[in-house]
Structure formats: C-alpha cells, structure tokens
TrEMBL record:
Signal peptide: none annotated. Residues 44-63 bind DNA. SUPFAM superfamilies: Homeodomain-like. Keywords: DNA-binding. This is TetR/AcrR family transcriptional regulator.
Length: 208
C-alpha cells in the first residue's frame, strides 16, 4: 500500500467528506464489508465490485488500484473515528477529562470496529507493519491530531506554552501498544478500567 506524508493523511482524514458520487460510496461500503469479512490480502477488486453491484472497470475508474481503494477505505474510517472521538469529548470542560475519556473511547471503538479490530484478528501480519515499522503516516497523523487538541487546551486553560507533541506521541504509542497486545497485568477490559488507567498514568503527563 502506498503511503503519503503524515500531514497529508491528517489533512485528508480530518477534511474527508463522504463522496458525492453514490457509486463511489457503494464501492467504499462494499470494500469495508469485504475487507472486514475476509481481510485485505484475500480480497480482490473483483470481490469488491461484485459486492457493490458494479463492474471491476467502474471500481478502477474511481480508485485506479487496489492499494488506492484500501487507502481510501481506511481514510474514511479514520475520518469517522476522529469525528466520533471529537463528539465524545467535546462537552468535557478540561483537557485532562478529555484525555481520560478520549483514551477509553479510542480503545473501545478500535477494538470493536469491524475493519480495524477485524483486520487485527484476521491478518495481523498485514496490519502490524502499518502500526509499527511502516506506521509513520497513520501514527503520525494521529499524533498531529492530538497535538492540535493539546495546543488549543494550552491557550484556553493557560498552560505553559511548550511543545505538546512529545506528550501526544507518548499517549498515542501507549494506546497502540494496548491495541496490539491487550494481555497485561493492567486491567483494561472495560471503559471504566481504561478511564482509571488514563486518569492515573496519562492525564499527569499534561503537567510533566
């Protein structure tokens, strides 16, 4: 799968609208369903086309390659994830509270997501490189997203004007670690346990 810069991924994920073209929406919906059921490696453009009720030529006209189709499917789900996360924390008054709730929501959403969670279960060998050694674009896009929230909190809450990027990266890497290997002496089976962990270990980073 081709990769873009993290700024490109972030900008596209945050600003990505639903396609105006009904056929493109159907293809992306079909790709999500297909990749969820069988994984990316075992799915072909023909499979997606059949599920969408269109020809393979139609899929290629809209998305050019299978890699591009996979990328656009992932970007749309990342965009939806950011929107859900924003909605979950928007009403909370402080950055500490938003970090705590955001961590819990992120874990719950990603584990339960049919594509992200499903791909980790179906073909971890395909997903893991994009969360580890080849994870620059998606990981850094998420770090940039959180960094923006931390910067705004600095201004609103009168926090010291320091670069929040290291704190954002630590938080994202901790979350990814629990997603990749949930087995731990730290109990993280439900949202309240995730909140307790974030309250004790992540929220204090804001004052570090």
């Amino acid at each position: 799968m081709r990769t873009d810069t993290n700024d490109s991924w972030l900008a596209r994920a945050l600003a990505l609208p639903e396609p105006e073209d009904d056929t493109a929406r159907r293809i992306l919906d079909a790709a999500l369903e297909q990749f969820t059921l069988l994984g990316v490696r075992r799915s072909s453009v023909d499979d997606v086309a059949k599920r969408a009720g269109v020809s393979r030529v139609t899929v290629y006209r809209r998305f050019q390659t299978k890699d591009r189709l996979v990328e656009e499917t992932l970007l749309r789900e990342l965009s939806r994830f950011f929107a859900r996360l924003d909605a979950a924390v928007a009403g909370l008054p402080t950055m500490k509270e938003r970090v705590i709730e955001g961590f819990a929501v992120s874990l719950r959403h990603t584990r339960a997501h049919p594509l992200f969670g499903g791909m980790l279960r179906l073909e971890p060998e395909v997903v893991l490189p994009y969360l580890t050694v080849q994870g620059g674009s998606s990981l850094n896009a998420t770090v940039e997203y959180l960094t923006g929230h931390l910067r705004r909190a600095q201004q609103v809450e009168g926090r010291p004007d320091e670069d929040p990027r290291p704190v954002a990266e630590l938080m994202v890497r901790v979350a990814v670690s629990f997603l990749l290997n949930p087995s731990s002496c730290i109990e993280m089976e439900d949202a309240e346990q995730a909140r307790n962990f974030a309250r004790r270990y992540l929220a204090p980073l804001l004052d570090a």
